[in-house]
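The authors assume throughout that readers already know how a fold can be written as discrete tokens. In essence, backbone conformation is discretised, so a fold becomes a row of integers matching the chain in length. A single example would do more here than another paragraph of explanation. For illustration, here is how one protein appears when written out as sequence plus structure tokens:

…
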Amino acid sequence: MATLVTFHAHPDDEAIACGGTMAMAAAAGHRVVLVTATSGECGEVPDGILAPGETLGQRRQKELAEAAAILGVARVEMLGYRDSGMIGTPENEDPQCFWQTPVDAAAARLARILAEERPDAFTVYDEYGNYGHPDHIQVHRVGVRAAEMARVERVYEATMNRDEFRRLMSKAAELGLPDVADLPDLDDVGDQMGLPEELLTTAVDVSGHLDVKRRAMAAHASQIAEHSFFLAMPAAAFAAAFGTEWYRLRGAPPGIREFDILPNGV
């Protein structure tokens, strides 16, 4: 049995970025540990979602527990920092938010979990946080430092394949997605989303676990409504968009040469 530890900024990030990899590892009998930095209390929430007196942070913690159970996660930990909100918002200035936390202080907290679990593979995000969210960038910084502290050797940056994104958007109508108004314009993708395919090292085919991934995403109903763009996708489009999860193994030469993130496969 191998151990996978996966580190994320907010509840729901785990299902979107690594849900298939986590489900596949758990189904194969490996130990999966999920750590989130915040409870995502700065997220947007539609009217009528929260119960009377319930905060968004409380709801998202419940959703995280449900999604983790769906994915087969053995242990869930939250580092307890405040959500930093989007770049330029007042929440960025909160000294208790994750973005303002000294990297070494947060990394030491995470490193204790890594030392307990001794993971065979550990996931963070790429240095841009996949799309520039401050908490996602901080996941990269804190995660990389924590791995150094705990001497974790195999650190993977979960990311998006920028070139594959462009290919998918160019055939959106063919996949049954004629209305892509809410997605970034292809000309604006630039270096703001994920990494170029040539820099990636690992492509994990999670197509056999897409039902589990989708159910885990749906568990985060305060953020991903059933009628949202992602969950309303036709099956073929959902498979095309989420059937492969992309990583860069830190320290490895660029070029996709591996198709799992645990040493002996999952």
